[in-house]
Design goal:
Blueprint lengths: L1 H7 L5 H4 L25 H8 L33 E3 L5 E3 H9 L16 E4 L1 H13 L15 E2 L8 E2 L6 E7 L2 E6 L3 E6 L4 E7 L5 E7 L2 E6 L4 E5 L5 E5 L6 E7 L2 E6 L4 E5 L5 E5 L6 E7 L2 E6 L4 E5 L5 E5 L6 E6 L3 E6 L4 E5 L5 E5 L6 E6 L3 E6 L4 E5 L5 E5 L6 E6 L3 E6 L4 E5 L5 E5 L6 E7 L2 E6 L4 E3 L1
Length: about 475
């Protein structure tokens, strides 16, 4: 909290209190941030214990000065609030202090460290009246008394308009459908964004743990979560239709084929659901490790697992047609071209499988660390690795024709657009690579943490970050 006040330059008896406030400042909005607590439950208590700011001035801590209830003090300045306003988490601050906090680029609640879902400041009338009554009874003059705001204050976010704020934690998946973008987050929600206006239309809240995967089929959106469940949402009304239960661990991957939804789980199974009736048709067993990724090709569903194998399932009969072995590490990524399926692994390699014979026709080597993401276009397959590079493989010759360098950290996400390959990295940037020249033509910044997922559609690229934000490029 000392750092918060130093940044804001708030008045108050900092020197007197400095020895008692060490270590109070929570980390900014990530997993494990402190849970919300009632207004004034933590930081203001120290103010009352020290008698600090009870008169609304730096001298308020003098012996004999009247001491107000702890909830009357701003958690930032430790002084009596003259204009208390609530932020999105429900915590109350003095308007002047919280505005200064937001003006410096912070998008978290100072007390909890949680990311603010919006920047509206709502006057806390009940608390303001209580403070005013106490001040009048004790002869204490409040700062700016009478200069009151009686309507919500919409703080103007100074961030670029292409960076959309709302999620409180990591964005794990993004999916585009028509003029809407859907984003799934570790904050247990799915946000629905209008692409044209770049505004959040709706927040879908029903999961009880992080949402990891999304898929769309017909007029339905499916979301898989760490709560072991799949939620089914209507794309028309944006309301929940049904909850699909059966998995006994996180639902990490979703894929649709022939009006059937396939769900891959950390419980080592793949479940198959009828998209219309929403009934479970089959539980596909065989993997002995978490199922991480799914891809459809040639009437077959391929599932990649941490057990180092890829299993092949007939979409119609739901029988296992083959188990593809050979990787020496977890299979984290699968993509398919017209003739081949590519599997990327922690063993630093990519294997190429013939869709018809299901034989490995080649092992692609060159990366110097785990292969985390794959993407395929009309002419090339692209692989991103923890070695900070992207390799470009010709689909006809199955040879590496270029190594793309530029990111300073691991490459976590890839997407192929009309004219560019797009990459996202732990270095917080999004890079655009020309598909003809195979060189970087644009480096985009705006996220404050790693870029975890990408989607390209209708001439736009959407990025989801560890900082909870969505980028539109």
């Amino acid at each position: 909290m000392r750092q918060v006040k130093a940044l804001l330059g708030c008045s108050g008896s900092e020197e007197r209190r400095s020895g008692e406030e060490g270590g109070e400042g929570p980390p900014e909005g990530g997993p494990g941030s402190p849970s919300e607590c009632p207004d004034g439950a933590d930081a203001p208590t120290k103010a009352s214990e020290n008698g600090a700011g009870s008169s609304g001035s730096p001298n308020g801590g003098e012996k004999g000065a009247p001491q107000a209830p702890s909830s009357f003090y701003c958690p930032i300045s430790m002084e009596l609030m003259s204009e208390p306003v609530m932020v999105a988490t429900g915590h109350t601050y003095d308007k002047e202090c919280i505005e200064r906090w937001l003006a410096q680029g912070h998008r978290t609640c100072p007390v909890t460290g949680q990311r603010l879902r919006h920047l509206e400041l709502v006057p806390n009338f009940a608390l303001r009246n209580a403070i005013q009554e106490w001040a009048t009874a004790h002869g204490v003059k409040l700062r700016n008394d009478g200069n009151r705001v009686n309507a919500p204050i919409h703080y103007q976010d100074q961030r670029p308009r292409n960076i959309l704020q709302g999620h409180e934690e990591i964005v794990w998946a993004v999916e585009v459908h028509g003029n809407r973008l859907f984003s799934a987050s570790a904050d247990k929600t799915i946000r629905v964004w209008d692409i044209e206006s770049r505004r959040c239309e709706r927040v879908l809240e029903d999961h009880t743990r992080p949402v990891l995967s999304l898929a769309i089929a017909g007029d339905k959106l499916f979301s898989g979560s760490y709560d072991y469940r799949i939620k089914v949402w209507s794309l028309n009304s944006l309301t929940r239709i049904k909850t699909l239960e059966g998995h006994t661990d996180a639902v990490r991957a979703l894929a649709v084929a022939d009006n059937r939804l396939f769900s891959g789980s950390y419980d080592s199974t793949v479940r198959v659901w009828d998209v219309e009736t929403l009934e479970c048709l089959q539980v596909l067993k065989g993997h002995i490790g978490p199922v991480r990724t799914l891809v459809y090709a040639g009437g077959l569903m391929f599932s990649g697992s941490y057990d180092k194998t890829v299993r092949v399932w007939n979409v119609t009969t739901l029988l296992c047609k083959a188990t593809l072995t050979g990787h020496g590490g977890a299979v984290r990524a699968l993509v398919a071209s017209r003739r081949h399926v590519f599997s990327g692994s922690d063993d630093y390699t990519i294997k190429v499988w013939d869709v018809d014979t299901l034989k490995c026709i080649k092992t692609l080597e060159g990366h110097e660390d785990n292969v985390r993401v794959l993407a395929v276009g009309d002419r090339y397959m692209f692989s991103g690795s923890w070695d900070k590079t992207i390799r470009v493989w010709d689909l006809e010759t199955i040879e590496c024709i270029k190594k793309l360098e530029g990111h300073s950290e691991a490459v976590l996400a890839l997407a192929v657009g009309d004219r560019n390959l797009v990459s996202g990295s732990y270095d917080t940037t999004v890079r655009f690579w020309d598909l003809e020249a195979l060189r970087c033509v644009k480096k985009c910044e705006g996220h404050d943490d790693a870029v975890r997922v990408l989607a390209a559609a209708n001439g736009k690229v959407f990025s989801g970050s560890y900082d909870g934000s969505i980028g539109v490029w």
